[in-house]
Design brief:
Elements: H1 5-19, E1 38-39, H2 41-47, E2 54-59, H3 63-67, E3 74-77, E4 83-85, E5 88-91, H4 95-104, E6 113-117, H5 119-131, E7 138-141, H6 144-150, E8 177-178, H7 180-186, E9 192-196, H8 200-204, E10 208-209, E11 212-213, E12 222-223, E13 230-231, E14 234-235, H9 238-247, E15 255-259, H10 266-276, E16 280-283, H11 286-290
Parallel strand pairs: 1-7, 2-3, 2-6, 6-7, 8-16, 9-12, 9-15, 15-16
Antiparallel strand pairs: 4-5, 10-11, 13-14
Helix pairs in contact: 5-10, 9-10
Length: 302
């Protein structure tokens, strides 16, 4: 029996792997392992033409996208994947609405989704897709558009043609969400870490609005300002992130419940935890919800 050169190379690699395990390679058309929650610019350059790849540029407003974007990218505004529920801001919309949105953007049941843009819109979008059950095939572009440009990636201001509508099957994961009842029941649980993504003044309750002090924090919570996760506009490497989270009390077997004021900054903590493989939930209502409930305690400086 005759074998092709690629098949012979594969057999040789398998034989060698018995003695020395090696990571999977994409030579000879062999399949690469999934890239994980962060992809490099080099990865995106190699896979830009992949069938089923969807690049989403998540921003608060459209101006930056219209000025310059990665060819083929599709714009999605934060307001499209968040909603207001009474006094609560940036909440998850109904699943049916999210399903329809992502189908209209060409997100289907196969292919990787790569997100770039402002940090908080991108991490909030990652959380949303993770909640819908797509997390294993969603990645953020490490360093975003700036890293793309530095590596010689081209940009365009041309309008992206409307994609063909895809068919998407979503499988919501309610275990990735926390509400006030869950937080109240677990805030003294040693197996749960409440992690506040806000700054010190907000955490202490010394920030004022119209002369009235804004609420402090959930009793038992630890503060880790989301900006500490970042360096020069990109997430720090895994080693640094692990040290930051460990200093806050996180551990691989301890569930993190991330919150902030309205659930936006907390999505950066959520993403860092997912990147490290830590169990995590996002309290979507955050302090906007917690402080509105008179029966729940609030800690902070007098």
């Amino acid at each position: 029996m005759r074998f092709s050169p690629c098949r012979l190379a594969l057999l040789a690699a398998l034989s060698a792997a018995v003695a020395t395990p090696a990571p999977a390679q994409d030579s000879c058309g062999e399949r690469e392992p999934p890239p994980g929650p962060l992809v490099s610019v080099d990865w995106l350059k190699r896979h830009h033409a992949d069938r089923g790849l969807v690049i989403l540029n998540a921003e608060r407003a459209r101006a930056a996208f219209d000025s310059a974007h990665i060819p083929g990218a599709r714009f999605v505004a934060t307001s499209q994947f968040t909603t207001r529920k009474g006094d609560l801001l940036t909440e998850l919309p109904p699943v049916a609405a999210l399903d329809s949105l992502f189908e209209s953007l060409g997100v289907g049941d196969t292919g990787r989704v790569v997100i770039y843009g402002e940090t908080l819109p991108t991490t909030r979008l990652y959380f949303t897709l993770d909640y819908l059950g797509l997390g294993e095939r969603v990645s953020l572009l490490h360093g975003g558009l700036e890293s793309w440009r530095r590596a010689g990636g081209v940009t365009t201001a041309d309008a992206t043609p409307a994609p063909a509508r895809a068919s998407l099957t979503v499988r919501p994961r309610p275990e990735l969400l926390a509400d006030a009842a869950y937080v109240d029941a677990h805030r003294s649980d040693p197996g749960v870490l409440l992690l506040d993504a806000r700054n010190q003044e907000e955490f202490d309750g010394t920030v004022q609005e119209d002369g009235v002090a804004r609420a402090g924090h959930i009793p038992g919570a630890v503060r880790l300002d989301w900006t500490e996760l970042m360096s020069e506009g990109r997430f720090r490497d895994k080693g640094d992130l692990r040290q930051l989270l460990a200093a806050a009390g996180a551990a691989p077997a301890r569930e993190i419940v991330a919150y902030c004021r309205v659930g936006s900054r907390a999505s950066a903590l959520y993403f860092a935890a997912r990147l490290l493989g830590y169990p995590v939930r996002l309290y979507d209502g955050s302090m906007n919800d917690w402080a509105s409930r008179a029966e729940l305690p609030v800690a902070g400086k007098p």
